[in-house]
Every structure is written in structure tokens, then in C-alpha cells.
Amino acid sequence: MKESYTMAPVPLIEIRNLTVGYDENIILRNVSLTVLSNDFIGIIGPNGGGKTTLLKAILGLLKPVQGEVAFHPSMSEGNHHRIGYLPQINQIDRKFPISVTDVVKSGLMSKNRLLGRYKTAEVEFAYALMEEMGIAGLRNKAIGELSGGQIQRTLLCRALVNKPRLLVLDEPNTYVDNRFEKELYEKLRKLNENIAILLVSHDLGTISTYVKSIACVNHSLHYHPGNRITPELLEAYECPIQIITHGPVPHTVLHQHEQ
Predict the structure, then answer these.
(1) Residue boundaries of the structural domains of the chain
(2) Contact yes or no for 209/37 (Cβ under 8 A)
(3) 42-71 in b/e burial notation, b at 16+ Cβ within 10 A?
(4) Ramachandran region of residue 161, left (φ > 0), alpha (ψ -120 to 50) or beta?
(5) What fold characterizes domain 9-82+164-259?
(6) Are 30 and 18 in contact (CB under 8 A)?
(7) Helix-strand-coil split of the chain, %, nearest 5
(8) How far is it, in rounded angstroms, from Cα 218 to Cα 257?
(9) 132 phi and psi, to 5 degrees?
């Protein structure tokens, strides 16, 4: 999985003047963003502003109305791109009769192969990931028997099993316990030593500790090269935002917008 950062960062993805939506409903208009190989970008913005739509365009699930999403040659492997995706947990059908192991291995199915045929090295890597995430003892359990944190560990293994160059996460801290949330962000910090990360989250106070830069998405995209949360950044939300920060005395700052 390792990619050396001793060389200059590579532009893995270049989004150029992207306009995208659903049927006649345009969600994002004229969006541009470059994702470098060492990036850890936090994507923030109000509900309905287009955060998930942006991810779908990157993943190839939505065709642009205008503009393009261009990939560096190193992002291509066969007929797919080297992207690991961790969706919102509410998109997972917990009633579907599938084991933890099968969920993790499903991350390999984008490659050209017959269903269920995996190389020995791939299976060993999948088991190693489950061991690292603390779910090796759950590998035969059905997905519906897991807690929120256990499901997120499973989905993260699935996202990583194909050794991506870019990891995309959509609200990964939803329905997880506080202990795993901290473990998750520390794991992402470590992963970012070797792969780029795009992280959608509403938790500004937490992600600002870990991300390197911030993209605010609200039907357009405003990119901030640092992780410092400023009034100008909050203005891009066009709605009240609550930030929980930690200092000598823990406190909450509530930024108000005029009606």
C-alpha cells in the first residue's frame, strides 16, 4: 500500500469546472479541485449542498453535465480506479445475509475476476486488515449482528483491501462510539502517510485536528489550503454552525448568520 512521499506530490485527481446533478436538478456548478497524493482534505458544508454528490462524481457514479474528473495514470488499475470508498453506514443493508469476511473481500470485486476467486496474497491481506482493525474474531458473523463501530471497522477494511491510492469517506463517525471515533481518526492520520484521503464530515472541531486542508461545498466549492477554521470559512455554510473546541476550559462557539 505504501507510496513514497520523498518525491513531489502527484496530482491524483483534477476536477475541472465540474457541473453535476440529477436529471434537470443541478447540485454542483463549476467546481474545481486538485487532490494531491499526500492530501488529507476535509469536505464540509450544509445538508443538500452537494458533498455526497461530489463524491459520486469522483467515484464515477454520476456523469458530469459539464467539466471533467481527470485521473493520474497511477490511479488506474485494469478497468477501475484505485479508490477505496467508505459509505455512510445508513446505506448498508444490515439484513442482508453476508459475513464480515465476505464484506471485506467484496472490496476486491472491482478487479477483473470470477466471483469469489481471490489470490492467496489478497486473502492474507484481507485477514491482516481484519486483525489490525480488531475484527478478526468477528469474521464469520453476519453484518447484522455487529455494532455501529464494528460495521465501520468492517467497511474500512473493505475500502483498504484493494490497496487504493485515494481513500474516500462519507460521514465515517456516524453511529460509532467515542472510543472508536478517536481510533478511526488516528488510523486515518497514519494511513495518510501513504495515501490521500477525502473525508466528508459535519464534525468541524474534530476533523480540523486531523485534516490538512478544507473544502467547503455548498453548490459550489471553496478550497482552504489550511485546517484553521475561520469566520470566512463558516460564511460559506450560509447557516449556523456549532463548533466544539478544546482549550484550558472546554467551550462551545456558536457562529450566527444574519437571517
Answers:
(1) 9-82+164-259, 93-162
(2) no
(3) bbbbbeebbbbbbbbbbeeebebeebebeb
(4) alpha
(5) Rossmann fold (3.40.50)
(6) yes
(7) 30, 30, 40
(8) 15
(9) -65, -35
Integer-rounded Cα radius of gyration of the chain: 19
This prediction's pTM: 0.84
109: phi then psi, degrees, rounded to nearest 5? -75, -10
Query: pLDDT digit of tens for each residue in the chain (259 aa)?
Result: 445 455 788 999 999 999 999 988 999 999 999 999 999 999 998 889 999 999 999 999 999 999 999 999 999 887 789 999 998 877 677 778 899 999 999 888 765 455 557 888 999 999 999 999 999 999 999 988 988 888 889 999 999 999 999 999 998 876 566 677 788 889 999 999 999 999 998 877 777 889 999 999 999 999 988 877 666 666 655 544 444 444 443 433 434 434 3
Q: Are 82 and 165 in contact (CB under 8 A)?
A: yes
With cell 474534530, the residue in question is 206
